[in-house]
Each structure stands twice: as C-alpha cells, then as structure tokens.
Write a structure and sequence with these properties.
Number of helices: 10
Number of strands: 17
CATH topology of the largest domain: Rossmann fold
Largest sheet: 9 strands, mixed
Strand order of the largest sheet: 9-10-11-13-12-14-15-16-17
Structural class: alpha/beta
CATH class of the largest domain: Alpha Beta
Distance between the termini: 89 Å
Oligomer: single chain
Order of helices and strands: HEEEEEEEEHEEEEHEHHEHEHHEHEH
CATH architecture of the largest domain: 3-Layer(aba) Sandwich
Shape: globular
C-alpha cells in the first residue's frame, strides 16, 4: 500500500512538472518519410502513369501534394493517406511531376521528368533583345576601365589581389584574383561565382588557386567574382556583417531586387552585374600570365545564372552551370512555376531581358548543366527549357534525380570538375 502511494505521488509530480508554466513539452520525434518512384529512372513518357510509393515509420497521417514543379498554382492531387500508400499521377505534356509528402514536422519530396528533352519555353524574348544587349556592351565599352589592383594575403608561392574596375550605373565591379608565382607557361583561368547574394571575402585566397592547380594538374589562376557593388571584406565574419548593413541601407531584403521599380531594365541589378563581370573577366584574361584561350567557369544557382550570361558574351573553353536560376523567369504568366524572386513577378517588362532561356542559343562553348528533379528554387522544367535551347553538340546535363536545389550524389561534384579538366587541351 505504501509503495503504491509513493508511485502515485511520483507520477503526479511528474505530470505537474511537465505542465508547469515555462516548461516546454518535449517535441515528438520527426517521422522518417521515404518516397520511391515508378518508373525507377524518374523519367516517364507523356501520359504514362507514375506511382509515388510513400512510407513512414510513424502512424501519423501524411498529406500528399502532387503538382507541376512544386507549384501551388498547378496542383494535380492533394490528399491525406496513411503509410504505406501509393499515389499515382500522370502529365500529358513535357514537364516535371513533383510529389511532396508531409507528416508532422517532416517533408519528403520526389520528382519525375516527363519527356524532359521536349521541354520548350513558349514565351518569346522582347523584340529588341539583341539590340538591347548590343547597346549595353557599347555603353560599358565607353567607360574608362579604371582598373585597380591591390595585393592581399602575402604568400611565398602565390600572388593574390583584390581587383576592381569601373562599371555602368556609377558602380564598381569587384573580384579576387589568385595565381601561383611559379609557372613555366601561360596559365588557364577559372572564373568562380557563388550562389545566394554572392558576396565573397579574401579568406579563401590563395587556397583556391592551390586547389585549382591540383584539379587541373598544372598552374592555374582563379578569379572569384563578388556581386554587390561595394568593396569586399577580408574575413567572412566581416563580409556577412557588411552585407547585412548594406541591405539595411538600401532598405531591401536582397540585393537582387534593386532596380525593379525603375521601368528601364538598365537599372535592374543583373544589368551591372553582367557588364561588370564581363569587364573584369576580360581584364584578367589579358594579363601576361594568362592563356586567354583557356577560360573556364564553374558556378551554381546564382552562379550558374551569371555563368550563362558570361558564356553568352565571352569565349569560354567550357563552363559548368549548376541548377541555374532565372530560367523561365516569367513562366507564371503562363500559369506555370518559374524561377523568380517573389518581387520579380510584377515586373516582367524588366526581367524578360534577363531570362536565361533567351541567352541559351548564343552559348557556343561546351556546357555542363546540373538539375535537381525536385528543386523548388530553380525548378527543373525551367532548367531543362534553358538546356534544350542551347545549341546541340557539346552540351551535357547531370540529372540529380534524388535531390533538389542543394544536395547531390557523391559523384556529382567530381564530375563537374572533370568536365572542365577534360576540355583543357581540346
């Protein structure tokens, strides 16, 4: 009797403690969800039935949404199921089926391509697209280069510089250049560009040049471009703080929104980003130690996008464009899901001049493109639309069938560098 009383008292105290004010109840473990697809290749024919098999280690209900590219505007099925379950769908025309399964605090995703090689963007470029960019290059060429080079991070085996030049709209373009001091011949140049807001700090230099020389198995120079129009910082910590203060100063959540309110596309951020990048790449490629016939580019997301622009304007030897953004920017006008910041959608008269699909036919060098089958930042339908518009010949695409914007199979990143290295002496 005494033991029963003590046990009851202990349980009561435990319940009171768990319900006490300010004491957070422990969150239940996240369910483990898995989606497998049939066909297992994740590539189907138009009209073919696609099965999404969904399993969970929990009894919690699972909400399943099947849509076009993950779009909220093109939902084909929305239902609640229990594990295990099979939800089927089909797509009558080329595109991507996107399956999202959510249970508790967990979401699993899967994507299936439907005749991706036939995906095309129906929307046409502005009638003055070619004339616009011809005049843009002319405007940029009229500016004095005003090239400034500042030595940074002294090293016995490498030279590293902060490099900048005058740019359109009263801005400057910035980048970090690094190269081995010992070279027996002119070097290849690899241009890099980051994702997101794409600001960079001096911290990775000269390490980037050392790593690149190892990849290419010969002395190789690196130019890493910095997107914002202010002087980059020396450390990552300072770089993050500076960019935060910069956004606060211009009163925007992201730099890629600047210029949208102006009706002229020349004020949009990408206009100066493209022209400034082109100027810096040209200036560095003309340095006496650089083999200007061996220019390479490697970038993903925002970097993949800028790399496509640069490949349109400059004679690269080969480029890697991973999950590039701004493909089918204004697909929403056709009630489809496009690659766009939410603020861009009301300014298609501006952003139309920067859609990668319209630049694709002018890219003549070998291209490797990466695409995530359930990428919701840069939807695969748009990426394939861009890829299919590149002239046939020396182009390849890597399908990340089990990944979205980030993430990749182990062989993915080595393959992107191998592609560039393989073209070194072609």
């Amino acid at each position: 009797m005494k033991h029963s009383f003590i046990l009851l008292l202990t349980l009561s105290c435990a319940l009171l403690w768990s319900a006490a004010p300010g004491k957070k109840a422990a969150k239940p473990p996240r369910p483990k969800l898995k989606i497998t697809c049939a066909p297992a290749t994740h590539i189907a024919k138009a009209g073919e039935k696609v099965d999404f098999s969904i399993t969970s280690d929990s009894e919690l209900p699972i909400q399943v949404i099947i849509s076009l590219d993950g779009s909220n505007d093109k939902i084909f099925k929305k239902l609640t199921v229990k594990s295990p379950a099979v939800v089927s769908a089909s797509l009558a025309s080329p595109g991507f089926l996107h399956c999202a399964a959510t249970s508790g605090r967990t979401t699993a995703r899967a994507g299936v391509a439907v005749e991706p090689e036939k995906i095309r963007y129906a929307r046409k470029p502005p009638k003055d697209f070619d004339a616009f960019w011809k005049s843009a290059l002319e405007e940029s060429a009229k500016l004095p280069l005003d090239l400034k080079i500042e030595a940074i991070n002294p090293h016995p085996d490498f030279e590293s510089y902060l490099i900048s030049c005058a740019n359109v709209n009263g801005k400057r373009a910035y980048g970090f250049y690094s190269a081995p001091k010992k070279r027996s011949k002119k070097m290849p140049l690899v241009v890099l560009f980051g994702g997101g807001e794409a600001y960079v700090a001096a911290a990775p230099f000269p390490g980037s040049a050392r790593k690149m020389s190892t990849r290419f198995k010969e002395s190789t120079a690196v130019l890493y471009l910095h997107l914002p129009p202010y002087r980059p910082e020396m450390s990552w910590e300072k770089a993050r703080q500076t960019h935060k203060e910069f956004l606060k100063k211009i009163n925007l959540r992201r730099y890629i929104i600047i210029g949208l309110e102006d009706p002229h596309p020349r004020k949009f951020y990408a206009y100066s980003a493209i022209l400034g990048g082109v100027r810096l790449i040209k200036a560095v490629s003309e340095r006496k130690e650089i083999d200007h016939e061996k220019l390479f580019f490697h970038g993903a997301s925002h970097g993949g996008k800028l790399g496509a622009y640069f490949a349109y304007f400059l004679p690269f030897k080969a480029v890697f464009l991973g999950v590039p953004s701004s493909c089918e920017i204004n697909a929403h006008l056709e009630k489809r899901y496009g690659s766009a910041a939410r603020e861009w959608k009301n300014h298609h008269a501006v952003t139309d001049y920067f859609d990668l699909v319209y630049f694709a036919p002018g890219i003549k060098c070998p291209v490797l493109v990466g695409v995530g089958f359930w990428d919701r930042s840069c939807p695969p339908t748009g990426v394939y639309s861009f890829y299919n518009a590149i002239p046939d010949g020396k182009k390849k695409i890597i399908n990340k069938i089990h990944d979205g914007h980030g993430g990749a199979p182990p062989e993915y990143h080595p393959a992107t560098w191998k592609f560039l290295v393989d073209h070194l002496n072609k």
